[in-house]
Amino acid sequence: MEKVSLLPPWSGRNQGAFSSSASHQTQAPRSKSPKSTGARVCLQSTSGRSSSPSLQSYIQLQVGNAFCRTTSSPRGSLWSGSRPAQFLLACCVLSCLLSHLPLSSFCAAQIRRNHDPDERLTGQFLHITDIHPDEYYIASGSISSSCHRNTTDDDKWQTMRPGRTDGFGGVYGSPYSICDSPFTLTNATFDWIDKNLIGKIDFVVWTGDNARHDSDNEYPRTQKEIEVLNRQIANMFLKTFTPDEDDPFQQRVPVIPSIGNNDVYPHNIMEAGPNRILQHFSDIWSEFIPESQYHTFQHGGYYTVEVIPDKISVMALNTLYFFNQNAAVDGCDEEDEPGTDQMDWLEVELESMRKRGMTAYLTGHVPPARKSYSPSCFVRYTDIALRFQDVIVGHLYGHANIDHFFILSQATLKDDEDRKKALEEARLLGESDSEIALSKVMQDDAPDFEYDQFHTFGLSSYLLELWEQYEDIPKRIKLSDYAIVLVSPSVIPTYNPTLRVYAYQLATERGSDMSTSVNPVKELGGWIVADDTQEKMRYDGEELEDLVLDQDDDPEGLKEKKKPKKPKKPKKPKKPKKPKKPKRPANPPAAPPTTFGFPLNYTQYWVNLTQANMELKQPEYVIEYRTHEEWGLKDLSVSEWLGLARRIIHDERVKKQYLAWMVVLTGAENDSY
Questions:
Q1: Which of 219, 288, 378, 493 has the greatest number of beta carbons closer than 10 A?
Q2: Do 200 and 308 belong to one domain?
Q3: 103 with 131, same domain?
Q4: Residues 474 and 406 in one domain
Q5: 372-to-235, 426, 598 alpha-carbon distances in Å
């Protein structure tokens, strides 16, 4: 029988659909072994057939086309970019059926691979943030001019960002300076990702800031420039994560972007949607946003993507509606505020995921810090983080440029009533929620500085609050009262460029390779005991007042001693009780590390820009540190991070190393702390 050649309906070529000739490729593919040989064999397996070859070809083509039309899925879904794969699979199955042969092992394997995506998972994902490309950057430009001009004149904006202001820009950027990223660094970053991470990650978390800072009066930013830069970076992601044409079954790696405070004009400001800014991003991110979430994004700039269908969802939040520097909105108290709408949406989505047994990562640009969010949004976010910690397995953010983690706690919610009273009093005086965020309403027990101002004053003031968080961890706690926020450092060389690759749980049981001999905490009989202080921390989710202690376990007399009974007095008529406010439900136990999708560790990569500029070689990202090997964390659970926080406070050597990695080995900690 003659060889059958089938063409997909979207192909304009006249050659066979499964030709391996490179001349038929529309772009140069990455070097990967082709997967079409088995399909070609399957299509030719028609011996013993008595039907007409032309009729068979026609049936295969028409049914194959119908299959492709009916199985195509919305933009950004698991099947996105895989129409050739659908066509090839349909024709493979159809050809085998028409030839009275059972499905070949190839066909069966491809069906499993396409309908069971777990077989293609690597258990890793990339977090990239704060690229800040600058088209005006020149290698010989003075740092005092943001690397824009060959001059040594002082620039009035030089104090608005951390870093040195002396010297000149390098070819690939200027580490620990006020300059943004040259495109040489941006291109080198995507080249490295293409060479080293393609095929090794399952999705990408991209947390915004894709335009330069407005730090030069001679080159003020414009809305058009910001839109062009954002489109350029989006196209780089599309080009880097384009499915390989040599592998028709490969699907586009999901990329989940979120909007940064420098991605809008003027910076920090975004009005309630729909608006022009959201319309622009819905256009340039159309390949990343699922069609089912398109209306939600146009309304508020937030959305969710099931990166592993029915298992893991990444929720991209629009943190500008929570940011206390956004004067166009007013917190999360009033029903008509976009911040309130977004929080309501977040709760509904998380409740749905809980019922479906899914896990979620919350991502965005500005981290949920007390000094960054309006008071009402900060409390609402903390409440959601604790009430849904059986669903949320990670809080991943950027914006700060420094590598660190901070703590959300139940204590924030206990102060909420006092906050609301203070807010009401302030509103009676005519103050808005945004103004109150910068007042003393939430600053009774915190330093008098605003979170984002470490861009102006350096690290010292910001670190004061961070150390207070670490020091204030009680001796005896419920882990369900805490959540951890992980802030990744940036690509922009505010210090040195970085990327972060997470590993997450794929198996149902933790492997033996996750054990470590350098544990910051160890589990003993239902407790977590810190090695350095021997302090006990509850992790089983029980209320402390409900604990039953043996006499030997009660050295401090925690048990309430029984008192002799007094004679009963005549009962007085009871007064009618005032209705009590409904109590907030107890926090559920956090998802265990054995949960599918739970983050197990991450590897931090960095570029030594000083060396790259001296050698004039394209920068290469190398390992800076790993949470498992260098920090000794068994996984990225709350107990492990609280144990590390204790070590940072009690061990100066650990604190010194933490600070060095915080500023990406630039030595800036010696200037700021």
A1: 493
A2: yes
A3: no
A4: yes
A5: 30, 19, 27
Asked whether residue 528 is assigned to any structural domain, the reply reads no
Does 366 share its domain with 503? yes
Total domain count, the chain: 2
**Per-residue pLDDT reduced to its tens digit, 302-325:** 999 999 999 999 999 999 999 999
Q: Is the pLDDT of residue 598 over 50?
A: yes
pLDDT digits (tens, 9 = 90+) for 359-402: 999 999 999 999 899 999 999 999 999 999 999 999 999 999 99
- From 360, 363, 342, select the one nearest 351 (Cα to Cα): 360
CA angle 99, 105, 109 (to 5 degrees): 120
Q: Tell me if 409 sits within 8 A of 385, measured CB to CB.
A: no
Residue with tokens 């299959």: 67
- What's the domain range around 72? 22-115
Specify the pLDDT at position 116: 57
Name the nearest CA neighbour of 364 among 505, 260, 436: 260
Q: Is residue 609 part of a domain?
A: no
- Asked if the structure places residue 222 within a domain, the reply is yes
Average pLDDT, the chain: 76
Query: In this predicted model, what pLDDT tens digit does every residue of 457-492 receive, in sequence order?
Result: 457 778 888 999 999 999 888 999 999 999 999 999
Report yes or no on 87 lying in a domain: yes
Provide mean pLDDT across the span 621-648: 97
Residues 81 and 225 in one domain: no
Return the closest-CA partner of residue 266 out of 309, 320, 303, 315: 320
| SS3 at position 446 | coil
Domain-terminating residue out of 115, 137, 170: 115
State residue 5's pLDDT score: 38
Total residues found in the chain within this entry:
673
Of 52, 80, 115, which residue sits at a domain end?
115
Q: How many angstroms separate the CA atoms of 127 and 502, rounded? A: 8
Cβ–Cβ < 8 Å for 528, 154: no
Distances (CA, A) of 371 to 160, 398, 444, 449: 18, 15, 13, 8
Same-domain status, 151 and 82: no
Its pTM stands at 0.74
